Amino acid sequence: MPSKDLKPKTRLGKSNPRRVKIITWIVGLALCGGGLFAAYRYTGTTEVEVAVARVRRADFIISVRTRGDIRSARSTILKAPSVPGLRIVHLADNGRPIKKGEVVVEFDAVQQESNVISRTTAVRAADGDIEQTKATQVMSDDADVMSKMGSEYDVERAKLDASKAEVLSAIDGEKNRIAVGVTEGALQQVKATINAHQVGNQADLDRLDQRKIKAVKDLDLARSYLGTMQLRAPTDGLVNVLPNFRSQGTFGQSTPPFKEGDNVWTGAEIAEIPDLSQMYINLNLEEVDRGKLQMGQVVHVRVDAIPDKEFLGDIDFISPIANLVYKGGSTPEKTFPARATLKNMDDRLRPGMSSSAEIIIEREPDRLLIPARSSFDKDGKPAVYVQIGKNFVVRPIQVGRRNDDDIIVTGGLKEGEIVTLESPADAAKRAKKKL
Prior knowledge:
Shape: rod-shaped
Strand content: 25-35%
Distance between the termini: 67 Å
Number of helices: 5
């Protein structure tokens, strides 16, 4: 049991001095760090990146920009011939270069070969029937000739007997005269029979000849069908396999092209052979730009697949009638088709390539230009921010015409000076928001 004289080491209600000291240091350091951060945040200097451009001297251009695709000025469409039951057994690869005379499409010729054989047999059978009929008619004609000769002999003998009437009795003489009439009648009957045989024989020959003519025509048609089982390239070019609009494609996807094994119909457009020696860009102009364009204006073309080369062309067609494009809503958009033939070609150029085009409307040479983004409105007048060292100074300028990209400067700037593309104050605010 503890003694009453012993005192506790720590009094109740009194804090630990060491703990208080530690807490005080922690709070002090936190306040000091916060103050330093606040001083840096609100009083420190931050470098801000501002987009700039140099004042330049160049041609000022008014132009119309649009999109289009490359097409061949001369193309040959290979169509299925007027032959029933066609099926493709060979089709040249899409995009493959091809020479004149090479086979592009080949159809199954088994049925046509069978038709040629059967119709050749029909022609030969018709020839055989004609020969057999002629031989039979020759034998019938010989029999008719013998019958006629016999009848003529009987007539002459009867006449001879009738000439003896003076020396015979009256009865016998009359009998002989009657016999002459009978034999002459029999002769006329034989001649009529011969004539009927001749007419019948000619009719039989005409019928057989008609049958042979039909058989020959059928044979010629079968041979012509057999000759169309291959579609060859009429010129050098590139194979462009066309869509098979009767194919059962996947819902929501584009129509698949023809392929080997497809059945085709008469007149089906299977492949296209474009002439790569002359090509043009097909354009669709907005209604607001239609009135700015004229025939012969220069077009600068950039092909998406050939970014390292610029193509030049001249406008040689502008449609006087607008195409209506429905994109939803009751009011359609109007576009005017136009075409510009390319002057310079490239082996990489292919029909169907997407392209951008700039049509030069007007050109003012040797003008002092700044980007349109560099001009700001200060007190109702144009001004720019000019970079001098690391600072930017507002300077009023005089301007002339402008297009979508550039403005002509007529006073207040010199070539080579640097101007901003945005307000430095806006750039600083954006930089502070990122901190």
